Every structure is written in structure tokens, then in C-alpha cells.
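pasting for the record
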Amino acid sequence: MMRYFFCLLLPLILFSCKAGKEIKDANHSTEAPKKPTHQVKLISNNLSEEITSNDELNVYLYKLPSDGGVPIPLLLRNMVYTKSGQTLAYNIDMSAVDKNDELLIVVIEMDSKNELQQMEPVVRLNWKDILQNHDDPKSEVLQKFLGDEDLLIIKKFTLKEIEKDKNKIAIEGVHLFDRYDYSLFILAL
């Protein structure tokens, strides 16, 4: 009987010793959030959906690892534009990005009910195939990965390269008779 008592008592003692200790969770870091270093600003110069005046864009900005691994997200946003000349801007931390690091910008006009969370992993894991086929809107590869969504731009660049163009990336073209024109800026704060 005494042996059973100790078998029950021992786990309680061990558990109570751990109960008072602080348990750190990787998702709830005690470090202060990093201060934003850059602003990503997207200006609608001409909406592609002129009839409905409602362009819903998914904007993905990644740092491309030098080892060829999976891109590191810097900005993942759904942006809705209702008029030409509208500006949306987000401050982000790019302290781990050097001026010569390769970055990838992807802007997709969302025509379906897909959500940012559904589309982003597809783009991040298949960006090389999407980049290779981006010039052909009827590409089976683009259809496979993007479905009915319209790829407005996918571009590799460095901060040093876009400094020459006043930190601006022009996003313009025509897709299925719809003309679109946006200006994307990445500005140091």
C-alpha cells in the first residue's frame, strides 16, 4: 500500500516543481518588437477594374536566401484600391536586409475569393516556376499555381538597384483588355 502511495505522490511532487518555472514559447518572445526600418508604399495610378473600381491586390515582398532556400517573408498584405491615386503604405523591419541582398516582389490581382493565407504559400514555394513563366499569361504553369488570379508583377531586385530609380518599381501593363498602372516604393525610414 505504501508503495502505491509513493507512486502517486512522486509525479505530483515533480509536476509541482515545474509548475512555478517560467516556460518560454517561441511564438511569444519576451524581446521587444523590432522598429520598422522601411516603408513599402503602393500607389494606384490606374485601376485595372475601372468598371467596379475595386482592385484587390495581394502584395508579397520576400528576401531571397543566398543558399537558394525558401524565401523569407518581409511583407504579406492584401490591399484594396477603390480609386486611382489612392496610396496604401506599411512600415516593415528590413534590418536583416543588405543593399545587395536579392529581394522578390510579387503583386497579384485577386479575382476570386481566395484569401491571402491560401495564395501566399503557393507563391512562396513555387516562385521560381512563376517567375520563369510570368511573360505568358496563358501559361499552364501560371494557371496551375494562380488559377484565375492575375499576376501583375514578379521581379527580383536589390535595394541598390532600385535606388537608381528613386526607390520605385513600376507595375504596369494590360491583362485581358484591362490596363493597370501602380507605383511601388520601398523607402528607408
